[in-house]
Specification:
The complex is a heterodimer. By secondary structure, chain A is α/β, with parallel strands linked by helices. Chain A folds into 3 domains: 151 residues, P-loop containing nucleotide triphosphate hydrolases (Rossmann fold, 3-Layer(aba) Sandwich), CATH 3.40.50; 30 residues, no CATH class; 95 residues. In chain A, 51% of the residues lie in helices and 13% in strands. Chain A has 15 helices and 9 strands. Chain A starts with a helix and ends with a helix. Chain B is flat. In chain B, the strands form 3 sheets. Chain B has a 6-stranded mixed sheet with strand order 8-7-6-9-10-11. In chain B, strands 2-4-3 form a 3-stranded antiparallel sheet, with no helix packed on it. Chain B has 3 domains: 112 residues, no CATH class; 197 residues, von Willebrand factor, type A domain (Rossmann fold); 35 residues, no CATH class. In chain B, strand 6, helix 10 and strand 7 form a beta-alpha-beta unit. Classes of the chains: A alpha/beta, B alpha/beta.
Chain lengths: 291, 395
């Protein structure tokens, strides 16, 4: 498989990947290295993992990171309630301590969390570690071990080595700088906002029955909007919402009704300051240029 | 399209060329280890390596690690592999000694030296290296007074001050604790039950949990990194602040200290000297240009891009001791602080002039800095510093 075939396979799943991204994914697959995707929110980083899993016909395991994420939520935890019940039941049956111990610290009582689950799949899954920059540095350190050795040590059970190596995708949008150690273990691809043509094909892929005029207007408008000085630039998901809103309202021409355009901006601009920065006149001017 | 670089016939092969390319990237500020070269060669076997575009994309995903590097990469790639973007040039390899440190054979140096010097003017005219050069010379614009005579700091700071400052620094350090953790650690008293321990212990009592071990949020100490302005306008306060820095270094083994005027100097090691007076003497040698002009924005930017990357993390408090008088445009300050803030640290600015009537001239510089500061206070005596304790505890 070359990166072109991967790009085509992803396009079939409805994702238009740039050459750089497709190449990075291809290398990540063939070298078995994790891939770090970085870019602004809403450029489709998470979607890459979903589409890749679909294209490879495998499972997607997702770990959403947040501040304070720890091993119990990310790797494994013992099922304490069941353990407690089992100990009680065993003592009534007269089972000896030693055999109870081996029993309650067995697979049966282990709750798999995403990372453990990902390395114990019969078919290599896609493991998405989403928004890694939100987790703290301790968690990065856990990850380093798992990403390089693909094994997890549970004190009560011993070391569990990966049955298959998952294809790992990490995403970050720059809330915090990642450590060099983590960056060095990963391949890297920066996902920018799509250019005009890419965005057109994304829109057409998602909404095949959209008219050419509206399609060009929407993309032109959103592209122009991104050039404005905004706090939060609209991403692809916002653009698609915008298109859906316009189609739902039966708008055929973006410049036709300033009131509707202003109302549908709610799908693109998500802060009060950004709304204020794009009053009716500016929106009309941008829409006029896009036409 | 430009022509692919022709390497000399005696060139040892792709592996050496790749090593040359990695050295070329390192020269241009990318942080790469030996491992990457191997991965890159491995990667080329998985793609159509003869296609320059494919090779560029593949190497880009391996050699870059952040958005800035990715943006820089295409230019660097072209300058090495694509003949610097030019159609024809006579390449006369000049072996420059600075390049040799990255390679182990002089032949490698040959292949990389010429294109690598080309990269400087094509793709990264004002990259990290240029900045380092101007910093090293400590050049000032004509209107500024570069005070290059040596000032003996022993005349300024007295050992008694240091002893007192040491006590204050100790208290300040102890006041700052990172309580933000959402992890829990086993502890005698705590707000959550440590179930893992409960299970283990109740094995012996037939599943009856007699004792309930607890766990709590661990408190971590914060590390102080002090960046002190010793420009001319700060001379009056230098005595206090240098004593404080010296005290801080003695009190806290993990603390870190820097001085800046027109350039930035790390003084941690010098101040750790057991003999307080000798520490100051060593400092005098380092603080060449003391009481001259100040480039706050540039110095902070330099700190954020060099030492900051290594020593500043989310458990660091960066303490800036400066009056905010910048001989250059104050716009740089805000950007530098924003970059520093991204490392997750807390930033405190102690300004001796805060609250003065005539303070307006620097209002613009400070206004840019304010959004990034966790604490902005006046401080010009050791007592003021000591009074900060309760506020630091709240951080």
């Amino acid at each position: 498989m070359t990166w072109n075939t991967l790009q085509t396979a992803m396009a079939e799943q409805g994702y238009i990947a740039s050459g750089d991204l497709a190449m990075a994914l291809h290398l990540s697959l063939s070298l078995g290295r994790p891939l770090l995707l970085e870019g602004a929110a809403g450029v489709g980083k998470t979607e890459v993992a979903r589409v890749l899993a679909a294209a490879q016909d495998t499972q997607l395991i997702r770990l959403q990171c947040y501040e304070g994420l720890d091993a119990a939520q990310a790797i494994y935890e013992w099922n304490y309630q069941r353990q407690l019940l089992a100990i009680r039941a065993a003592s009534e049956d007269g089972e000896t301590g030693k055999s109870v111990e081996t029993r309650i610290f067995s697979d049966e009582f282990l709750l798999e969390r995403p990372l453990l689950k990902a390395i114990r799949q019969p078919k290599a899954p896609v493991l998405l570690i989403d928004e890694i920059d939100r987790a703290d540095e301790e968690f990065e350190a856990y990850l380093l071990e798992i990403l390089s050795e693909f094994q997890i040590t549970i004190p009560e059970m011993g070391t569990i080595t990966a049955t298959t190596r998952p294809m790992v995708i990490l995403t970050a949008n720059g809330t915090r700088d990642l450590s060099d150690a983590l960056r060095r273990r990963c391949l890297y691809a920066h996902v920018p906002y799509p250019d005009h043509d890419t965005e057109l094909s994304i829109l057409v892929t998602r909404y095949p029955d959209i008219t050419d005029l509206l399609c060009a207007q929407i993309v032109g408008f959103v592209q122009a909007l991104r050039k404005q000085d905004l706090e939060k630039k609209p991403g692809i998901a916002e653009m698609l919402d915008f298109a859906a809103a316009l189609m739902g309202l039966g708008v055929a021409d973006l410049t036709a009704d300033p009131v509707i355009l202003q109302a549908t901006l709610a799908t693109l601009l998500k802060t009060q300051m950004d709304r204020d920065a794009v009053p009716t006149e500016i929106a009309q001017r941008l829409a006029g240029k896009a036409a | 399209m430009s022509i692919v670089t022709k390497f000399a016939a005696r060139d040892p092969g792709p592996a050496a060329r790749m090593a040359g390319f990695v050295a070329h990237l390192r020269d241009n500020g990318l942080r790469l280890g030996v491992g990457e070269t191997g991965i890159a060669l491995d990667a080329l076997t998985h793609i159509n390596a003869a296609d320059p575009n494919d090779a560029r994309r593949a190497l880009k995903s391996i050699f870059t690690g952040c958005a800035e590097e990715a943006a820089q990469f295409d230019g660097l790639f072209n300058s090495f592999w694509m003949n610097g973007g030019r159609v024809k040039t006579r390449v006369t390899p000049t072996v420059s000694p600075s390049l040799n440190k990255n390679t182990h054979s002089s032949r490698d140096a040959d292949t990389q030296s010429a294109p690598s010097s080309g990269a400087g003017d094509i793709s990264a005219p004002d990259g990290g290296e240029g900045e380092a050069e101007s910093d090293g010379e400590g050049k000032l614009v004509a209107t500024d007074v570069a005070n290059l005579f040596k000032k003996d700091l022993r005349d300024i700071v007295r050992p008694e001050d240091i002893a007192e400052a040491e006590k204050i620094a100790l208290r300040l350090g102890a006041a700052m604790r990172d309580r933000r953790s959402r992890r829990r650690k086993a502890a005698r008293k705590g707000d959550q039950i440590h179930f893992r321990k409960v299970m283990r212990q109740s094995l012996g009592t037939g599943g009856e949990p007699f004792a309930l071990p607890k766990r709590h949020r661990p408190e971590r100490t914060l590390r102080i990194t002090a960046v002190c302005d010793v420009s001319g306008s700060m001379t009056v306060y230098s005595r206090i602040f240098l004593a404080f820095l010296a005290g801080l270094m003695r009190a806290d083994a993990r603390a870190d200290a820097y001085l800046f005027h027109t350039r930035l100097v790390r003084i941690t090691e010098a101040l750790r000297d057991k003999d307080a007076l000798r520490a100051l003497a060593r400092l005098s040698l380092l603080a060449d240009g003391f009481a001259g002009g100040s480039k706050i924005g540039e110095s902070l930017d330099r700190f954020a891009s060099t030492y900051g990357r290594k020593f500043v993390d989310n458990r660091t408090v960066v303490m800036i001791l400066s009056d905010g008088y910048d001989t250059q445009s104050p716009d740089g300050i805000s950007d530098a602080l924003a970059r520093l803030k991204k490392r997750g640290c807390k930033i405190i600015w102690l300004n001796p002039l805060k609250g003065w009537d005539g303070y307006e001239p620097t209002a613009r510089a400070m206004a840019g800095a304010l959004p990034h500061l966790d604490l902005f206070r006046a401080a010009n005596t050791l007592d003021d510093l000591a009074a900060l304790e309760p506020e630091l505890a709240r951080l």
